[in-house]
Design goal:
Belongs to the peptidase M20B family. By secondary structure, the chain is α+β, with helices and mostly antiparallel strands. The radius of gyration is 23 Å and the shape is globular. The two termini are about 30 Å apart.
Length: about 400
């Protein structure tokens, strides 16, 4: 199973499937559709039924029940796309067998080193088989590790009919990284009572709380005049944008917060004297605090409109997803099944809030309660991303055990 899992994951990781928030298509990039069709072929080859892919790149498939019990249909999901934060073109995964616990040279020519000083959790993987980048791209374990684990688990269940389970549905979705993963997901067609995204990080992660999330874009319009004659005439939009950012609490940013603390995160800024734009994401676990954060942004915008003109400061703000805890708490047993599955395999569950979001954040509000489980990846979205194959194998085992327990408890 180990070599099969490695081969499967690397074949996915080498495909460029970064999403693109500036695209209006679904999927937002053609590479995601290429991977979707590859998965359709693989799912058919391994013996899955009801294998489909729609025009938007949503892949669905079924593993029929092998029990006479009336077991609720459960689902497992992962997303096709990789993050937009760092390039995912020409990914060259590297395998480190029996990792020795020391720094890993990712790219000798470019002097790119994955160090235990910068990433102290790395040394905890001593003895594991690791898959890393070559230092020039992200790896894509978020979420291709999840895809590989789900497919491998289905292969295992098909090969072991003595493990009784109800009907299982799997789905692979586009554009999660740009917040659109469930936008065209057909919950009714999926037909599951509940599901799990396999989209977490280190061993044992089990998450059913997520941020409430919004995105804000503020555009600033100024007046550009030759600097030699600019006195009293120039209105510098970039300076207005900088003044705006300084009105936000400096300590309420990702680099200063953890646990249940929310934040304002400046994800990009562009500009010159004439036109500038700030893009933020706004996050908080508490709904009231979330609404207050959005109101604070809007209040500063109104103040700047009064100072610089109503047409010169423009706010676009929209909610992206909400804390899925509200929808999962009433069916808490689905979290308990995952917890019991991990404990039965000797894995200590790490139940904590997701400082981010998964497709489950939106799906839970669409009628499909969907907590999240680990994949074995670390340092997502950048050149220092890596995954432990040993932990990936544990994720496969957890998927299998969830299916077995769900049948046992029915």
């Amino acid at each position: 199973m180990k070599q099969e899992l490695i081969k499967r994951f690397i074949s996915y990781a080498e495909m460029d499937t970064q999403s693109n928030e500036d695209s209006e298509t679904c999927p937002s990039t053609p590479g995601q559709m290429v991977l979707a069709h590859k998965l359709v072929e693989e799912l058919q080859e391994i013996g899955m039924t009801e294998v489909t892919v729609d025009e938007h790149g949503y892949v669905m498939a079924s593993l029929p029940a092998n029990t006479d019990k009336d077991v609720p249909v459960i689902g497992f999901l992962a997303h096709l796309d990789t993050a937009t934060d760092f390039t995912g073109t020409d990914v060259k995964p590297q395998i480190v067998e029996n990792y020795d616990g020391n720094d890993i040279v990712l790219n000798e020519a470019l002097n790119i080193v994955l160090t235990t000083k910068s990433f102290p959790e790395l040394s905890g993987y001593k003895g594991h088989t690791l898959i890393t980048t070559d230092g020039t791209t992200l790896l894509g374990a978020d979420n291709k590790a999840g895809i590989a684990e789900i497919v491998t688990a289905m292969v295992y269940l098909l090969a072991h009919p003595e493990i009784k389970h109800g009907k299982i549905r799997v789905a692979f979705t586009p554009d999660e990284e740009i917040g659109r993963g469930p936008h065209k997901f057909d919950v009714a067609a999926f037909g599951a009572s509940y599901a799990y995204t396999v989209d977490g990080g280190p061993l044992g992660e089990l998450e059913y709380e997520s941020f409430n999330a919004a995105a804000a874009k503020i555009s600033f319009h100024g007046v550009n005049v030759h600097p030699g004659t600019a006195k009293g005439k120039m209105i510098h939009s970039s300076k207005i944008a900088m003044a705006f950012h300084l009105r936000l609490p400096a300590g309420e940013a990702p680099e200063f917060t953890d646990g249940y603390e929310g934040f304002y995160h400046l994800i990009s800024m562009q500009g010159n004297a004439e036109h500038s734009k700030l893009q933020y994401i706004i996050r908080d676990f508490d709904r009231e605090n979330f609404e207050n954060r959005k109101a604070h942004i809007a209040a500063i915008v109104d103040e700047f409109k009064s100072t610089y003109g109503a047409d010169n400061v423009v706010l676009e703000m929209n909610d992206q997803y909400y804390n899925m805890r509200e929808k999962i708490e009433p069916v808490r047993h689905i979290v308990d099944i995952a917890r019991e599955a991990m404990e039965g395999l000797g894995i200590a569950p790490v139940i904590r809030p997701i400082r981010g979001g998964t497709d489950g954040s939106q799906l839970s509000y669409m009628g499909l309660p969907t907590p999240n489980i680990f994949t074995g990846g670390e340092n997502f979205h950048g050149k220092f991303e890596y995954a432990s194959v040993d932990v990936m194998l544990k994720a496969v085992q957890v998927i299998v055990e969830i299916a077995r327990l769900a049948e046992q408890k029915a």
